[in-house]
Amino acid sequence: APLEETPAEEAPAATPAQPAPGPAAGQAGSQSPAWQEEWDKLAAAAKAEGALSIVTLVGAGLRDAVKTFSDAFPGIEIQQQQFASASQAAPKILQEREAGLYTFDIGRLQTLTGLGTLKPKGVWTPLRPLLFRADVTGDQYWQDGFEAGWLDSGKELTYAFGVKVTGFFTVNTDMVKDGEITSFNDLLSPKWKGKIQLEDPRSGASSAPMTSVRLKLGNEPIRKLYKEQDAAILRDTRLIAENMVRGKYAVSVGLREEILVEFTNQGLGKNLKNLDIPEASYYSANNIFVMNRAPHPNAAKLFVNWLLTRDGQDKWVKASLEANSRRTDVPPLVPDSAPKPGRTYVNVTREDTLGEVEKTRVLLYDILGITN
User: Fold this and answer.
1) Residues in the chain with pLDDT < 50?
2) Would you state the pLDDT for residue 5?
3) Which of 348, 304, 284 is nearest to 157 (CA)?
4) Which of the two ends of the chain, N or C, has the fewest CB atoms closer than 10 A to its terminal CB?
5) What is the pLDDT of residues 326-369, one digit of tens each?
6) How far apart are CA 57 and CA 321, in angstroms?
7) Residue 327: which residues within 8 A CB-CB, separation 6 or more?
8) Residue 213, class by beta-carbon neighbours within 10 Å (0-12 exposed, 13-18 middle, 19+ buried)?
9) pLDDT of residue 204
């Protein structure tokens, strides 16, 4: 059956927040849990290594989120490199490893690149064996249970801790009135010609919403948007955000919230609004990978276990603004991005759907005449 008709793609509403038993991350209560001794030894070993090296996408939100880990564990220096897209990070990772350099411990990268490009090169180490805290692996702590978070087919390499429904469409409300754009076909109106900016498909993000559109409407509406609407095609994700804040374009595909926060922190961008376009909306997850031959293996193990605790998720979500946590004991930060009951979504972050995303990428390259 087509992906958009698959019942499994429809995610239930988040379970109301429930208090988690046991101490907060890294702190023992009056009766220490079984994993506490291992946790304390791991924290000491990680501090002895003294650093954690992580590769992420760009954005002040992700810098702030990563900093919450070093705040929780003083003495562990964060070495963070940020890239405009995972597709730009991958060549650096592979070139370094071919030269015998193993720089990174952690990859916070999308699955299209993480599983489609880097997994075949043997970059990742299994994450599942690293997770040992009962308050991380218990089914009661996760929407749909713990096992539902694995995104790779083998259910061991990458775990989804955050989820959201998005279409990556943003409008400037000074230029777009309520009700003017309610469907994908509305974007094809002559009124919006020259007023739309789209993220370059080489950056990766545009392939996800366009996959949903392709599976529901076919190829032709996508071709019209990219070729007949005089849309600007941009790779610079910060410029995409700046253009919207300054009112240069009415509609944007590819504006990243973790970058927009740089402007909202200055009181800018309050006239921007995420647009719910049913044909383009998709279900995605924020996930984490661990590198093999990591230079700081104890810090990497500490980080992934901490990240998946209630305390780690609460701090990460509030700092990054990326998505709502899948944990049942962490309230959704952005309820509007939670799945809507009764609507079916294409999940673009699972390994078994990456083939459809790749078909969309090939289509976009063909439409734009991109050869590399």
Assistant:
1) 1-29
2) 34
3) 304
4) C
5) 999 999 888 777 777 777 788 888 999 999 999 999 999 999 99
6) 13
7) 141, 142, 143, 161, 308, 310, 313
8) buried
9) 66
Q: Please tell me the distance from the alpha carbon of residue 163 to that of residue 158, in angstroms, as a whole number.
A: 14
Q: Which amino acid is at 191?
A: K
Instruction: Scan for tokens 């995610």, then name that residue.
Output: 11
Q: Three-state SS string across the chain, please?
A: CCHHHCHHHCCCCCCCCCCCCCCCCCCCCCCCCCCHHHHHHHHHHHHHHCEEEEEEECCHHHHHHHHHHHHHCCCCEEEEEEECCHHHHHHHHHHHHHCCCCCCCEECCCHHHHHHHHHHHCCECCCHHHCCCHHHHCHHHECCCHHHHECCCCCCCCEEEEEEEECCEEEECCCCCCCCCCCHHHHHCHHHCCCEEEECHHHCCCHHHHHHHHHHHCCHHHHHHHHHCCCEEECCHHHHHHHHHCCCCCEEECCCHHHHHHHHCCCCCCCEEECCCCCCCEEEEEEEEEECCCCCHHHHHHHHHHHCCHHHHHHHHHHHCCCEECECCCCCCCHHHCCCCCCCCEECCCHHHHHHHHHHHHHHHHHHCCCC
| pLDDT recorded at residue 105 | 98
Helix-helix angle 220-228:207-217, to 10 degrees: 130
Backbone φ and ψ of 193, nearest 5°: -65, 125
pLDDT for res 51: 98
What is the per-residue pLDDT for 220? Answer: 98
Residue bearing tokens 């919230």:
257
Q: How many residues does the chain have?
A: 372
Contact 55, 108 (CB under 8 A): yes
How would you class 308 by CB atoms within 10 Å of its CB: exposed for 0-12, middle for 13-18, buried for 19 or more?
A: buried
- In this structure, the strands spanning 282-290 and 159-166 are antiparallel
CA 213/CA 3 separation, integer angstroms: 12
The sign one gets for the Cα dihedral 306, 308, 309, 312 is positive
For 64-87, the pLDDT digits (tens) are 999 999 999 999 999 999 998 888
Answer whether 180's CB lies under 8 Å from 250's CB: no
Q: Which pLDDT value is given to residue 30?
A: 55
Q: Which of 162, 151, 127, 138 minimizes the C-alpha distance to 300?
A: 127
